[in-house]
Every structure is written in structure tokens, then in C-alpha cells.
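COMPLEX REQUEST
Ligand: 2-acetamido-2-deoxy-beta-D-glucopyranose
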Amino acid sequence: MKLLLLLLCLGLTLVCGHAEEASFERGNLDVDKLNGDWFSIVVASDKREKIEENGSMRVFVQHIDVLENSLGFTFRIKENGVCTEFSLVADKTAKDGEYFVEYDGENTFTILKTDYDNYVMFHLVNVNNGETFQLMELYGRTKDLSSDIKEKFAKLCVAHGITRDNIIDLTKTDRCLQARG
Ligand SMILES: *[C@@H]1O[C@H](CO)[C@@H](O)[C@H](O)[C@H]1NC(C)=O
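STATUS: Structure written out below.
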């Protein structure tokens, strides 16, 4: 009986472990499926002031337009208490799955993980005047995501050297949702 239970548990672990990886392998991302509306859920950085109130990277995504050789992002940012809309276009680089955009310096980013229908996780490196920092973002198709996905994202941040106190859950803050209508 004990052995049976053990085997059952092992079997389930394999199935669950497999399901979790059902997103995509690096290089076979179907980027078209990222098109559409998104919400910023969690943001993390090893330069915390960038994602704190009034920080340049505390931006709230509304929409991703998948274009031929680029990704168009529409964001809101809160400046002097006002929610302003702005757009950025990130161009594909020569490296598979990598994009580049100028905004508060030079930004290179990749898509780390997505299941297309619920969440997407980005990793970005910013270089500005010889200084560099990392930014990681979790977007959701809905205004919030399960604690499971958030925890998976937090672990990924830690794996990239971003400490837990530099991970900010934006769902508990003003994300300019009222401006979005
Ligand atoms: C952000 O900017 C607003 C408006 O200028 C200001 O009232 C607020 O104190 C700032 N917040 C921080 C954390 O600096």
C-alpha cells in the first residue's frame, strides 16, 4: 500500500512538473499569441528606485501589438499624480527572442515564460551612462493572477539575483486602471 502511494505521488509529480513546463522552450515562442490586452501584476528590479513611486520603470501595460519585426507596447505612467498614456516600439534584435528599445537608456529584453492565455514574464537589462540594472515584469490577461504564478515569478526573480524585497506587487497599488476605462 505504501509503495502504491509512493508510486502514485511520483506519477503525479511528473505529470504536474510536465504541465508547468507546457509554456514554451526558448526559441519556439509563438509571439503572435502575445497580442492583446495585458495588466501589470508584479514588477521587480535590482535598482529599486526605478520601480518605486515616480520611478521611470513603474509603468502599467495596457496593450501589446505584435508587429512584423517589433512589439508595440501601450502603457500608462503616473506623473505628478496624473495617469499619462505612452507607447514604445521594441525592435527584434539579431538574437532569437530578444528585443531592444530606448527608454531611460538602452533596454534589451527577452520573454522568459508565458502560457499566452494568462501570464507573460519578461526579463530586461537597462544600460544608461555605463550603469546597468535588471528589470523583471509579470503581466496578466486579467487584473490579478494566482499566488502560484506570482510565486513562480518571484522564484525566477531570485534566480536572477533580485531579492524578494525588490519585488513589488502592483495589484495592491494604483495602476491607473480608472484612466484605462
Ligand atoms: C511622486 O510624485 C508626486 C507628485 O510630484 C509626489 O507628491 C510624491 O510625493 C512622489 N512620491 C515619491 C515616493 O517620491
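REMARKS: The pocket of 2-acetamido-2-deoxy-beta-D-glucopyranose is lined by residues 53-54, 80-81 (CB under 6 Å). The longest strand covers residues 82-92.
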